[in-house]
Amino acid sequence: MKTPLRDAAALAAGLLAPFLAALALLPWRTSLSPTNLALLLVVVVVAVSALGNRYAGALAALSAAAWFDFFHTQPYQTFHIRDRADIETAVLLLLVGLVVSQLAARARLLGTVAVTDATHLERLHTTTRRARVSASADEFVERVRGDLVDVLELKDCRFERGVPVGGPSRLEPDGGLAVPGWIWDVDRQGWPDGEIELPALAWGRDQGRFMLAPRDDARPPSLEARLVAVDLAVQAAAALAASPGDRTPA
């Protein structure tokens, strides 16, 4: 699985931002105390963590401690520290940077989860309303297809009428992923290669399946997003089952 571009950029920032900040603080190396310099570097660590992720934050904390040692403790331009107070400041910078980076990343994650959950809930409500006003089941299924592309951040999605024949990987009702011949952890391993089948089931009857085509560089969707996708497929199947002209033969 490829590293998403945003995560790669966050890791690069975690490595480079403290270095650039420590370099920019050189003119004030003798006028500011080592403690104040360390606090300014902590601000950089927090910024990287808030905009990136916890791994980028941890890397930024390590980078900040290293460049604080290199540029702002004697002897300068070495990774050796002579003064005990400077050693304590460097260690505290590392520890505080690690702690605040994880807290900042967690706060950002919680905020993202809250916004995402509200978005998913609104999407389900909107889809339910659409089911009542759609001119035909096919029109509603097309709308659900577009919703699945958005929810799962797909490259493409298509709907196939009839009973699913199986074969490809399948998104299960519990949000898990069934991959023939494998025990698959989608949160850790991401999407498998090829298309993924999402059955459209209603009242125990197969109405067809959505074939999901993930983007090559996409990160795996959250469990909440996958469960929303399953609910959307159920609503599409219910619309087909409730339409006499669209019923699938038993």
Give a structural overview.
A six-stranded mixed beta sheet has the order 1-6-5-2-3-4. It is α+β, with helices and mostly antiparallel strands and 250 residues long. The chain contains seven helices and six strands; from the N terminus they run H-H-H-H-H-E-E-E-E-H-E-E-H. It folds into two domains: 106 residues, no CATH class; 113 residues, Beta-Lactamase, CATH 3.30.450.
| Rg estimate, integer Å | 26 Å
Q: Structural class per helix/strand content?
A: alpha+beta
Fraction in helix: 55-70%
Largest β-sheet summary: 6 strands, mixed
Reading the helices and strands in chain order gives: HHHHHEEEEHEEH
Low-confidence stretches: 110-118, 246-250
Give the strand content: 5-15%
Q: Outline, from the CA principal axes?
A: rod-shaped
Assign the CATH class of the largest domain. Answer: Alpha Beta
* Overall mean confidence score, pLDDT: 77
CATH architecture of the largest domain: 2-Layer Sandwich
Query: CATH topology of the largest domain, what is it called?
Result: Beta-Lactamase
The total of helices stands at 7
Distance between the termini: 40 Å
Tell me the number of structural domains: 2
Total E-strand runs = 6
Strand order of the largest sheet: 1-6-5-2-3-4
